[in-house]
Amino acid sequence: MNVVVCVKQIPDPAAPGALKPDTHTLDRSGKLIMDDSDNYGVEMALQLASGEGDEVTLVSMAPGGETSGLRTGLAMGAAKAILISDDALAGSDALGTAKVLAAAIGRANPDLVVMATESTDGYTGTLPVQVAELMGLPSVTFAKAIKVDGSSVSVERQTEAGYDEVTVPMPAVVTVTAGVVEPRYPSFKGIMAAKSKPVDNLTVADLGIDASQVGAAGAGQEITSVAPAEARGAGEIVVDEGDGAQRIVAFLEQLKVV
Amino acid sequence: MAIDKIWVLAEHADGAPTPVTLELLTEARTVGSTVEAVAWGPDVAALAAPLGEYGATTVYDVGDIGDVLPGVPVAAAMAELIKGGNAPDAILFAQSYEGRDIAGRLSAKLDKPVLTNVTGLVASDGGLSSEHPIFGGNEIVTAKFTGGGPGIFVIRAKSFAAEPGGGGAATVTAAAVPDVAATNTAKVVARHVEERSGPKLDEAAVVVSGGRGLGDAANYEWIEELAKLLHGAAGASRAIVDAGWVPYSHQVGQTGKTVKPNVYVACGISGATQHLVGMKGSKNIVAINKDQEAPIFSVVDVGIVGDVHKVLPALIEQLKAKG
C-alpha cells in the first residue's frame, strides 16, 4: 500500500508570528519546522503502511527548497519525499496550494492520502477537501481513528454529538485530528538514515501547472488591512495566598451567578 | 462584486436549523438584499418556516442524500445551480464539520477561493470584505476576493447574533444532485452519540474548562463538579484532548468549539492562541494558573496566580457550603 502524507513546513509556532508588511501574508522566511499537526498524520501513515512492500511518501510545498521539516518525517520512517519549491508559489491561497499538492500527490499513485485536519499556522481547514475534489477522490475529514480493511478504510469521524463510523473505498483522502495516535520520536538511527533518503524536487512547470494559476497571481483574495483587535480591559490579577477561591466566589456573586 | 443575493448553507439537527445557521441568515439579511438557503435531508420542507422567519425567501432542497457524507452531493448540487445561471454573489457557510467539507468541495468545483475563520462581514464599495482574527485574536485582518463571485465565506459560530426578521415560510425549490458516483462513496455505517449531562458547551451560560495544569486526567473531575455547581458545561484545552483525558467534544478553541458564555473559568490553561480564539469573546473571564506570565491572564477579569490543586477544591467546597 502506498500512503501519501502531506506535510506542512511552518515557522516555529513558539516564535512570535509576523506578517510581511507589503502583502500581509505570513512571513515564512525564517527556519521552518514540520507542523506539529502533521506528526499525527505521519505516525498514522507509518502504522497503516507497515506491511511488506508498503511505503509512505511525504509531499510538501515550501519556499527556498526547505527540507528541514521533511527530514523530521523521513526520520520518523517515511521512505521518500516530494518537495515542490518555486518562487512562483509565493502568496498562494488554499486553492492554489491544493492544485499544486493534488498534482504532486498524483505522481506517487497513492492508495490513501493522509493530511492534518488543519495547519497550525494558516488553519483554513479546507485544503484537504479541495485536494480530494481536484483529484476526483472521496474524502473523510476529522478522523479520530483509522483502520484499513482490504480495499477500504474505516474511519471514526468526530461529529458535534460524538462520532460516526464511516467507510470509504480506496483511494481516498482522510484528514486526522491531533491525538489520533501517539507520534513516535525519531530515533538516532532514523535521523541518520533520513539524511540519505530521496527528496524529489519539483517546480510548478514540472507539474504541468500554469504559473498564473498559483502564487499571488492565482490567489483570488487579498488582505486589505490589518488592525489591532479591540483589547479587553485590564483585569484584576492576584497571587493566591489561600484566598484565591474566595476572590472567585465574590466575583461570581457580583455577577449573580451564585 | 456588488452584493445582491446571498446563500446560506442551512444545517439542521433534530428538525430545527442549528443556531449558527440562524446567525448566518441574520447577517445575510444585513449585508445582502435577497437571502436564500440551501439544505439537505429527508424533510427540508419542515425547515421552510424557521428559515423564512430568519430571512430566507427560498430554500433549495438537495433532498435525502441517504447515508453518505454531505460534502460531495451538496457541493455538487450547489455547483449545478450556479452553473445553471442561478449564481449568488456570496455564500455563507458555518465553520462546522459539514460546512468546511461542502465549502472546500464547492471551491474546487467552481475554481473560486474560500475565506475561512471569518468573524465579521463588512459591505463596502459594492463588495463584501471579511474579518479574520489572527495571532490569537490580537489582530484582525480584513480580506476580500479579487475575482468575480460567488465569494465563499466560512464563518465561525457566534460571530453574529441571531434575530428573526419576521418573514413567512421560504419557498422550497428542488436542487438536483448530478452524477457524482466516483467521489460520493464515503458512507456512514453507524452513529455514536456521547452522553452529556447539563447544558451544551456552546450554549451554556457558564463554561468551566481544564488544561494541562490539572496534572492528571483524574483531576478533570474537579472541572465537571465545578461546572455542575455553576449549572454550566465542562470544557477543555486542546492539550488534554490530545492527551486523551477527555473526548474531543469538550474542546474549546480554534479546532474545537467557540464559546461566548456569561462566565468562562479557565483552570490550569496557559492560553495558547489555539485556545484564546475559542473563548476570548466570553463576557467575563476567570483564570487560575500558577504561571503569572501565562497569556490567559491578558484576557481575564479576575486572575488567580495559584495552584489549581489548591484553589479548585477550595472553590468547590465554598460553593457547596453556600448551597
Verbal overview:
The complex is a heterodimer of chains A (258) and B (323). With 258 residues, chain A is of the alpha/beta class. Chain A is built from seven helices and 13 strands. In chain A, the strands form two sheets. A nine-stranded mixed β-sheet of chain A has the order 9-8-7-10-6-1-4-5-11, sandwiched between helices. Chain A has a two-stranded antiparallel ribbon with strand order 2-3. In chain A, helix 2 (68-76) packs across helix 5 (188-194). Chain B is of the alpha/beta class and 323 residues long. Chain B has eight helices and 18 strands. Chain B has helices spanning 19-31, 48-53, 71-83, 97-110, 220-229, 238-242, 273-279, 308-322; strands at 5-9, 12-13, 16-17, 34-39, 58-61, 90-94, 114-118, 120-124, 127-134, 139-145, 151-155, 171-174, 187-193, 206-210, 233-236, 263-267, 284-289, 302-305. In chain B, a hairpin with a 2-residue loop joins strand 2 (12-13) and strand 3 (16-17). Chains A and B meet through helix 3, helix 4, strand 7, strand 8 and strand 9 of A and helix 3, helix 4, strand 7, strand 9 and strand 10 of B. Strand 12 of chain A pairs antiparallel with strand 10 of chain B.
Query: How many beta-strand segments of chain B?
Result: 18
Radius of gyration of chain B over alpha carbons? 21 Å
User: Could you give the distance between the termini of chain A?
Assistant: 59 Å
Largest interface: A-B, 80 and 96 residues
Q: Say which CATH homologous superfamily of chain A is assigned.
A: HUPs
Average residue-wise pLDDT of chain B? 94
Estimated share of beta-strand residues of chain A = 25-35%
Distance N to C terminus of chain B: 58 Å
Helix content of chain B: 25-40%
- SSE-based structural type of chain B: alpha/beta
Count of domain modules of chain B = 2
Order of helices and strands of chain A: EEEHEHEHEHEEEEHEHEEH
Question: Number of helical runs of chain A?
Answer: 7
- In angstroms, what is the radius of gyration of chain A? 21 Å
Number of domains of chain A: 1
Strand arrangement, largest sheet of chain B?
A: 7-11-6-1-4-5-12
Unreliably modeled segments of chain A: none
What is the tally of beta strands of chain A?
13
Measured by DSSP, the beta-strand proportion of chain B falls in 25-35%
